[in-house]
Design a protein that fits this description.
The complex is a heterotrimer of chains A (354), B (310) and C (262). Chain A is built from 14 helices and four strands. With 354 residues, chain A is an all-alpha fold. In chain A, the strands form two sheets. In chain A, strands 1-4 form a two-stranded antiparallel ribbon. In chain A, strands 2-3 form a two-stranded antiparallel sheet. With 310 residues, chain B is an all-alpha fold. Chain B is built from 13 helices and no strands. Chain C is of the alpha/beta class and 262 residues long. Chain C has two domains: 1-87 and 178-262, P-loop containing nucleotide triphosphate hydrolases (Rossmann fold, 3-Layer(aba) Sandwich), CATH 3.40.50.300; 99-176, no CATH class. Chain C has ten helices and ten strands. Chain C has helices spanning 50-57, 80-86, 103-109, 119-124, 128-146, 162-175, 192-209, 220-226, 244-249, 251-261, and strands at residues 10-21, 24-35, 39-43, 65-70, 73-75, 88-91, 180-184, 212-216, 229-234, 237-242. In chain C, a hairpin with a 2-residue loop joins strand 4 (65-70) and strand 5. The radius of gyration of chain C is 19 Å and the shape is globular. Chains in contact: A-B, A-C, B-C. Chains A and B meet through helix 6, helix 11 and helix 13 of A and helix 5, helix 11 and helix 13 of B.
Chain lengths: 354, 310, 262
């Protein structure tokens, strides 16, 4: 009875097109924000923030990025990890090359560099359709991986290929405690999520979805296909680039190119599939699910003491991931986001079943 | 030293021929993909994991993982064959059939899930240590050839190429001469039409997945003996992908030729072009080649041209 | 009604176009002229090349021979979105809606061409960008009112019955405010009532907005009632061209098409 929209009449198109048209949703989101900003750093242990929340938030950005491309524009990409690497290494080169560059500007520039790289590898998408695109994005992956490993310039000639991010500061305020880094990442996540949501509910998102659903009809109604696809690649890569930069600067500090291997690309792909193709909210669900699943598996194995070797657990993880992917694709291709929506619809009708 | 290499035509021939030989082995893996693609339009990303599964199963049986009985090679291969056929059919039944009529991207992603499952399952069952597989084929240069022409080629690679060749020939005959083979070609042309003339689609698909399992076994044996049976066998899928693109997904001949092209050109590029870039270009060179082919001929060198209707 | 109406200048001129796919000649030597404000029908037996002709007009296919000019502008090789930008909108034989989107979003997509704000504005959803979206929403609501589909505004189009899908597709084309509307079998698969509705919409669009309409239809009753001008294709060639009553009497047409149909 609490979740009901009766009595809330939309009297303008503005109200109808709002991001959260239902009042209860707005209240819920506001509470969630307050909790994320103010309550979490107090209540949640530093360890949990570092090892669960940070990867969750950062990978959410990458998942949103891939979801814009795959879920909204229908273009599959296995280049996510490569684009994250481009962002990470661009931010590193910028930070070490121009030490006075403000970090926010640095990240945006790194994102733009990634966007350009993404567009270059997205160019074949005009002629190549469906999963054929997986091949050209794989080309991007292997090429980027090789370039970063082979040319010492990218790592400032670090002999091991490992880079260490310089300390973070925003407008002169040093960001070094876990809580500060958490806020820093959270700020990026919120801004990028809102921008993504705005894009997908506007003409840009409609053009993407039109291309996804039927490209010929989209062209006929006046959507320029190449431009639309390239924009999707650019925006998606921008998000992945920022995620990569945050991954190094705010999360692990030192990183080698192998941190962005093909498994990372699959990990983000799974977040998008399980979370929900074509849903910004779903990207968060998916990221949370994939980040916490190994923890749950470990917890479930805990009663058996140390009897289960780590190797078995990691294989078990592969098996469970595999089953879940197939399960979601068969049962609910729209993922957790769709389940959430169904749940809300049930709640709206509750306690009357029909 | 470098100039020496360029001046020696024999060396260039050696590079190309050994590239061609490993190219046949790529064709072999790619064949498993092409088969399933032809019959159902699915790109089975898990084919590489199938190869791993088959090779691991075979080695474990030989080493006596099953009730401590060490099976001889041929018997182990026979048992593995049965396991692979059953596994292939189970995949068709449990994963693909429920996803019938879904878009190709969804099916592709499902096979990525299947890939993870198969990798985890295979290693859970048989362990993840690197194992040696000995097929009894010597890994040494063919002396007669070297004495006659001065070209050094490994006996193993020649035998492996021959086995791959026989399998390819066998499959080609299977598709052109048997009823099931012809039905399969009908299905690949138009599955609705094939169904309407009474071809049992699901039966055909089960056969196809079973055959894909068999190809995985052969590929797993040869590659396993060459590289050692280990996780990286699973990554063969990534090698086969550009082969398929270049050859055209729906052409068996195309896939074989493309395997040769990829094998020869990547070796050639690695040896003669690679040094200028600091080497290790083998990994991405086939992909760049495939991208170029896609841009010029999206249907691949041997694929059928697709005309879109609206 | 033909003959009683007066039409403006030639808006679309197709001159001697030929189109082939490999060995198959889909169109050969087809010429026609459509005048502003006309309802122009293309008929012919199955496989006569009608849809191919529409595809050439709005740039989905590129004919190997001949020329097409729209509003006096000759075009060498035009892409569909350029044709759309010039004011040609289109519906398809098999409904080509964006299945993952709601009715509202489908029709809003028809307005995309008219939107001026770039993606950075749209990402901010603020000031001019929001005002633009809302102004276009108001336009789209007019189309929705016109086609009487208010109730299905938020329904994903994949869930709609066929007749309504066709109506939404017409709405999407109308939202682009085209000068010329190409309709590929707008009434195929509809029942009598739905057909009558569709006829009414077509006449109203033509009447109220002066939109030139070029349609393919198999229902001869509908064609003869609606059209100002009819062109008949057979095996990729034009075999008749004139007002409906003249075409109806043309012996070649009766042979090729009506004769076979009746």
């Amino acid at each position: 009875m609490i979740y009901r929209e009766s009595g809330q009449f939309k009297t303008s198109y503005a109200a109808d097109q709002a991001m959260f048209p239902i009042r209860q949703d707005r209240i819920f989101i506001a509470l969630l924000l307050v909790a994320a900003v103010a309550v979490v750093p107090v209540v949640v242990s530093e360890y949990a923030i570092r090892s669960i929340l940070m990867p969750f938030l950062i990978l959410s950005i990458a998942a949103i990025g891939l979801n814009l491309l795959l879920g909204y524009c229908g273009l599959i990409s296995l280049g996510t990890a490569a684009f994250m690497a481009v962002g990470a290494f661009s931010a590193y080169k910028l930070a070490t090359g121009i030490p006075d560059l403000p970090i926010v500007l640095n990240f945006i520039l790194a994102g733009l560099v990634t966007a350009v790289v993404g567009m270059a590898f997205g160019l074949p998408s005009l002629r190549i359709k469906g999963f054929y695109l997986a091949v050209t994005t794989l080309a991007a992956h292997f090429f980027v991986e090789w370039t970063i490993t082979k040319f010492g310039w990218f790592t400032n000639y670090s002999p091991s290929g490992v880079i260490s991010a310089p300390p973070l500061d925003v407008f002169g305020i040093a960001i070094d405690s876990t809580t500060e880094k958490y806020w820093f990442v959270l700020a990026w996540v919120l801004v990028l999520a809102v921008l993504a949501k705005n894009l997908v509910r506007s003409s840009v998102g409609r053009a993407w979805m039109a291309v996804r659903d039927m490209d010929v009809a989209a062209a006929v109604i006046g959507v320029p296909i190449l431009k639309t696809k390239l924009l999707a690649f650019a925006v998606s890569s921008f998000y992945c680039g920022i995620a990569g930069a945050l991954y190094v600067f705010a999360y692990i500090g030192t990183v080698e190119p192998q941190a962005f291997d093909l498994n990372r690309a699959f990990q983000v792909l799974f977040m998008v599939i399980i979370g929900g193709l074509g849903s910004i909210l779903g990207s968060f669900f998916g990221a949370a699910f994939i980040v916490t699943l190994p923890i749950f598996i470990t917890l479930a194995a805990a009663p058996f003491g140390g009897q289960i070797p780590a190797e078995v657990l990691s294989n078990l993880e592969l098996i469970i991931f595999g089953i879940l992917i197939v399960f979601f694709l068969i049962v609910e291709p729209l993922g957790l986001a769709r389940l959430w929506q169904i749940g809300k619809e049930k709640l709206r009708l509750w306690p009357f079943p029909h | 030293m470098l100039e020496m290499i360029y001046l020696d035509p024999l060396f260039a021939i050696e590079v190309v021929v050994s590239g061609l030989l490993s190219g046949i082995m790529y064709s072999l893996v790619a064949l498993g993909f092409a088969l399933i693609f032809k019959a159902s339009g699915i790109f089975n990303f898990a084919q590489g994991a199938f190869v791993l599964f088959a090779a691991l199963t075979l080695v474990s049986l030989i080493e006596g993982a099953l009730f401590g009985v060490k099976l001889p090679l041929l018997l182990a291969a026979a048992v593995t064959l049965v396991i692979m056929v059953v596994y292939g059919m189970a995949v068709e039944r449990l994963v693909l059939r429920p996803l019938i009529n879904q878009s190709l991207i969804i099916l592709f992603m499902a096979t990525i899930g299947l890939n993870f499952f198969t990798e985890g399952f295979a290693q859970m069952l048989w362990g993840a240590q690197v194992k040696r597989l000995d097929l009894g084929i010597p890994e040494k240069p063919w002396e007669g050839l070297r004495l006659a022409t001065g070209i050094t080629l490994s006996v193993f690679e020649l035998v492996a190429a021959a086995i791959a060749g026989v399998l390819v020939l066998g499959l080609t005959l299977f598709f052109s001469k048997t009823t099931t083979g012809r039905a399969l070609r009908a299905v690949s042309d138009d599955n609705q039409a094939a169904m309407s003339v009474g071809i049992p689609l699901q039966h055909i698909w089960a056969v196809v997945w079973a055959v894909a399992g068999i190809i995985a076994l052969v590929a797993g044996m040869l590659w396993g003996a060459k590289l050692g049976v280990q996780f990286s066998l699973s990554l063969l899928a990534l090698k086969a992908l550009p082969v398929l693109i270049i050859g055209g997904f729906d052409s068996i001949v195309g896939v074989i030729v493309a395997g040769l092209i990829v094998g020869a050109s990547e070796k050639f590029a690695e040896v003669f072009v690679g040094p200028y870039f600091g080497g290790a270009i083998e990994n991405w060179f086939p992909y760049v080649l495939a991208t170029v082919v896609l841009l010029i001929k999206p249907q691949g060198l041997f694929g059928e041209k697709i005309i879109e209707r609206v | 009604m033909a003959g009683r109406r007066q039409f403006g200048e030639v808006i679309l001129s197709v001159e001697n176009i030929g189109l082939s796919f490999g060995a198959v000649q889909a169109l050969s030597g087809v010429s026609l002229e459509v005048r502003k404000g006309q309802i122009f029908s293309i008929i012919g037996p199955n496989g006569a090349g009608k849809t191919s002709l529409l595809n050439c007009i709005n740039g989905v296919y590129h004919p190997q021979q001949g020329q097409i000019s729209f509003k006096g502008q000759m075009r060498a090789r035009m892409e569909p979105h350029q044709a759309a930008a010039q004011g040609i909108a289109r519906t398809f034989q098999n409904v080509a809606l964006f299945r993952g989107m709601s009715t509202l979003d489908n029709i809003m997509t028809g307005r995309n061409l008219k939107m001026r704000r770039g993606f950075l504005w749209k990402a901010l959803w603020w000031g001019p960008a929001e005002r633009e979206e809302l102004a276009h929403r108001a336009q789209v609501e007019r189309v929705i009112d016109f086609l009487e589909i208010e109730a299905i505004r938020k329904t994903p189009v994949g869930r709609l019955p066929y007749g309504l899908q066709k109506r939404v597709e017409l709405g999407r084309a109308l939202a682009a405010e085209p000068e010329m509307l190409l309709l590929d079998e707008p009434m195929a698969g509809m029942n009598l009532e739905e057909k009558q509705d569709m006829c009414r919409f077509i006449l109203d669009v033509n009447d109220e907005f002066g939109t030139t309409i070029c349609l393919i239809e198999h229902d001869m009753g509908v064609v003869m009632d609606l059209s100002d001008h009819v062109v008949v294709l057979d095996y990729g060639r034009k075999i008749a061209d004139g007002p409906p009553e003249q075409v109806r009497r043309d012996p070649r047409v009766i042979d090729a098409y009506l004769g076979a149909a009746h």
